[in-house]
Amino acid sequence: MNDEELMAAQRQLRRSLLDGHGALRWRPARDLAAHLLLHLDEPDDCWRFAAGWLREAFDADRVDCGFGRPEEACYRPQAEALRRDRDVPSVIGLAIDAADCGVQTVWHAHGVVVLRDVEQERRLGQSTRAELLRMGTRVKMAAPIMDRTRPLGLMCVDWMDACEPARDERWARFEEIAAVVLGPVMSAAQRMASGVQRDVGRPVHGGDAIDLLESLTPAERTVARLAVDGLSYKEIARRLNRSFSTVDHQLRSARSKLGVSSTARLVNLMSGTRSH
């Protein structure tokens, strides 16, 4: 995967999601899609951001997601977002039996599956129901993330108190996000990731990294330092009063000059040179 391939994939998705006749109309969904496109070559970041966005947008207690396939023995969430003002158990590290009838129902669903009362839900196997109850889940929405007709992952939204997400707009909004945004975006992100076998160019360490930092423009160095500090593209753009695309371009230029293929690797490299 090179920058030209990445930019081509971003342009295609931008046309279909943001600019075309069938473009998203719900403003929050457009904002989500725009942010994910900036991280298209970093699928883990896409999952994490999508989980956090959904948790906040739907006022959920926990959102988890990740790649997987229905024929695998277990599904393991790769990213999650938890409500901070209550004790919500983490599902990271949990291996969910993919053969469970309830899990298979989600994998093969043509849309969103709503479990209104996990304790009474007949579509769940006994062990999966017990595990969900142990994690505090009372109400659950789940949907397969599809690469056209092929499932490539799951997205789950949990509440620990009784609620009726199917009776308000949350159900329809979740279906739109899962099918229209996450399906094509995570499909492209997965393809981008599979094409990255190693960083382009020779490894950069120690004094070499410090020398290469001098090749960055002041603007590139500024956005890179803010990325090291943990700021998102949106936060960097807001702080510097720049557009998303400008921040994206400057970080990509910095990555190219430093010989790294992702913002995560850029952060790791620059973290070792903070005193310089």
Helix content: 40-55%
CATH class label of the largest domain = Alpha Beta
- Give the low-pLDDT segments: 197-206
Report the order of strands and helices: HHHEEEEHEHEEHHHHHH
* Rg, nearest Å: 20 Å
Widest sheet: strand ordering: 3-1-7-6-5
Strand element count: 7
Characterise the protein shown here:
It is a single chain. With 276 residues, the chain is α+β, with helices and mostly antiparallel strands. It has two domains: 192 residues, Beta-Lactamase (2-Layer Sandwich), CATH 3.30.450; 66 residues, Arc Repressor Mutant, subunit A, CATH 1.10.10.10. Helix content is 50%, strand content 13%. It contains eleven helices and seven strands. The strands form two sheets. It has a five-stranded antiparallel sheet with strand order 3-1-7-6-5, sandwiched between helices. A two-stranded antiparallel ribbon has the order 2-4. A hairpin with a 2-residue loop joins β6 and β7. α1 runs antiparallel to α6. About 4% of the residues have low confidence.
Notable features of this structure?
two-stranded antiparallel sheet, 276 residues, 13% strand, Beta-Lactamase, Arc Repressor Mutant, subunit A, alpha+beta, five-stranded antiparallel sheet, 11 helices
